[in-house]
Design goal:
Length: 198
């Protein structure tokens, strides 16, 4: 399960890093937006992400972590696809703002779930699991932007950001797989407890 949570956080960080590093460049060179105005694309992405994270606790209480990850993955991918596929500057702003909103939850929720995996009954524990997933996740921030740049140099920046959108969407099936793995682990533990007490 930890590997799956790590890949969820990795996908989130790759898509987030691609948006942070390439959104303004995309606006200038693919949509003809002036440099000053293109900076607002990144600002919109960051502001929408910040607002979503501020509302994260309330959202998780209402919808649960699984729905947050799947919904965020879908919204983030949709935003990037809108920015890439609709050749209208206004939709570039809208698309990246949606991407920021959708990608806001992937990284922190995956880390929270990783910490919960190793948590003991007394509330301690979880440090190793958190460190493991964090290490995988931060590699996405380091490798994501140059990977997108490399794809763009071979194809084009819209194609590269489209790849980032697919990576963002991949969080949804990974979340379903992680949830199944968590249930299997819980069943295994329950059976072990029942066997020990029999």
């Amino acid at each position: 399960m930890l590997w799956l949570l790590g890949f969820i956080a990795l996908c989130s960080s790759v898509a987030e890093g691609a948006s942070v590093d390439w959104s303004a460049f995309f606006g200038v060179h693919e949509r003809g937006i002036g440099e000053a105005q293109a900076a607002l694309i990144y600002a919109g992405f960051s502001i929408s992400m910040a607002i979503a994270r501020l509302l994260g606790e309330r959202t998780e209480t209402r919808w649960g972590s699984q729905r947050m990850l799947i919904g965020g993955s879908t919204i983030g991918a949709l935003g990037l696809f809108i920015a890439v596929l609709v050749p209208v500057p206004a939709f570039t702003y809208i698309g990246f703002a949606l991407a920021g909103m959708g990608l806001a939850y992937g990284f922190p929720v995956a880390l929270e779930l990783a910490s919960a995996v190793g948590r003991r009954a007394d509330g301690g524990g979880g440090e190793r699991e958190l460190g493991f997933v964090t290490t995988i996740a931060y590699s996405g921030f380091l490798l994501g932007p140059p990977m997108i740049g490399g794809i763009a140099s071979v194809t084009s920046l819209p194609v590269a950001l489209g790849v980032a959108a697919v990576i963002a969407w991949a969080m949804a099936p990974l979340t379903l797989l992680a949830n199944r793995a968590r249930r299997r682990e819980q069943q295994t533990r329950q059976q072990a407890v029942e066997t020990a007490t029999a």
